[in-house]
What we know:
Helices cover 35% and strands 18% of the residues.
Amino acid sequence: MLECAAFRVVRNADVRVAEDSPTQLLEAMENVIDARKRSSIVRLEIDRKASPSCCSFLQAALDISKTSVHRIDGPLDLSAFMRLTELNGCEEMHDDPLKPLTPVFINSAAFMFDVISKHPVLLIHPYESFDPVLRFIDEAASDPDVLAIKQTLYRTSRASPVVASLIRAAENGKSVTAVVELKARFDEERNIEWARELEDAGVQVIQGVRNLKTHAKICIVVRRESHGLQRYVHVGTGNYNEITARIYSDVSFFTADPDIGADASAFFNAITGRSEPLSYRRLSAAPLGLRETIIGLIDAETQRKKQGLPAWIDAKMNSLVDQSIIESLYAASARE
């Protein structure tokens, strides 16, 4: 009699890729996705109620050691439960959804460009709506005075309105550049599809930077105005993903500041290979200068405190592993 038991196989996801040319990188990433499906098994998760004979059979069939078998109480792969939140019905079983706010001065404005030209805008998601970000890119795609859009794409949604806007912008005759990071872990397949679709629409697609991940979230729009060309910039800590923007805590910043606009242009020129990395006026970017900038800011607050002046440090991060910055924060928090 064949016994049935719930189990989950976890394969090695750390498959490396050789980076020689953009074309080879695209092909190599496709090979990585394929190889990941056949990579070595590192863990077998199985219902604790499964019989010893069932575990032994799976262990032998999958050729894994006994230490790689993990008996689990409860459901396997809790991430699969996320799909349940997308189902309609049973509203009484749902928590009341968070309703993000949109500042009145944005809602009442005809154009995002009108808002940003008057003053910078800072939004905190998901407490404030991500819609102004989508609106900024959407309006740029349609506005006849917009000449160019440059944007980084790291993780996007399955039916990304951002990608749709970039495609429409290219179809409207605008110069559109998208830096699509093919090495975004576990989003490689989706990003390859987006890269090809964007290229088919006439978008200049840059497939990441050799030996680095382009993790920056930045968009620059170049617009023709009465006084000349004006650059509008959005930078954020979160991805251009309207789905995760409802869940993750992130910051969006819009500005027409000429120094930040010049920095954004220099950044895109560097990662697209048009120029060597230059010194920035207001921004900092890794791997050249960002660590030093952060440590400098921490040390400056440390010295202010030692001089008896008001000093504080607020830092938002996904994780912190940089030893030098950790040591600087320890030093800043230490009591003499």
